[in-house]
Write a structure and sequence with these properties.
With 141 residues, this protein is mostly helical. The chain is built from 4 helices and 2 strands. Strand 1 and strand 2 form a beta hairpin.
Length: 141
């Protein structure tokens, strides 16, 4: 009985700590919308690790990649910040700069390969969406 009580107490403490952290992170996210990144970083004790420069499908975890590439393009000196969840953790994803590479800078073979890749990916997304729709709404007798 004492072990069960200790586990429940530990769980409650962990949940309180998670709620407090979420509140601090929510405040930080709001500040990132209004203030330059350096001011926000000085204000909060959180430390961001630089992941470097990434393109799509270049080795980031899928959830982090989705969050990073769905964030709006940040203004100069600002960061676009969002969160995503992994197995047992919440990750804050910050985008400091978006570099757009014009398709004209690619050679024609690379441009064609890139277009085919995106067409296949879009086709797969549509098929997945349609399959999910059918699973949710189909009534098979």
């Amino acid at each position: 009985m004492a072990q069960a009580t200790a586990r429940v107490k530990a769980k409650l403490i962990q949940e309180k700590a998670a709620q407090a952290a979420k509140a601090k992170i929510a405040a930080m996210l709001e500040d990132f919308k209004k203030l330059p990144a350096q001011q926000v970083l000085a204000k909060y004790p959180f430390k961001f690790e630089s992941a470097g420069v990434f393109t799509r499908s270049q080795g980031l975890k899928r959830e982090i990649e989705r969050a990073a590439f769905s964030a709006p393009t940040p203004k100069a000196g600002m960061w676009s910040v969002t969160t995503t969840s992994l197995a047992n953790e919440m990750v804050v994803v910050a985008v400091a700069e978006v570099k757009k590479s014009p398709i004209e800078s690619l050679d024609p073979a690379q441009a064609q390969e890139l277009m085919q890749l995106y067409q296949r990916m879009r086709g797969q997304q549509l098929l997945d969406d349609y399959t999910q729709y059918l699973k949710a709404n189909a009534k098979i007798k």
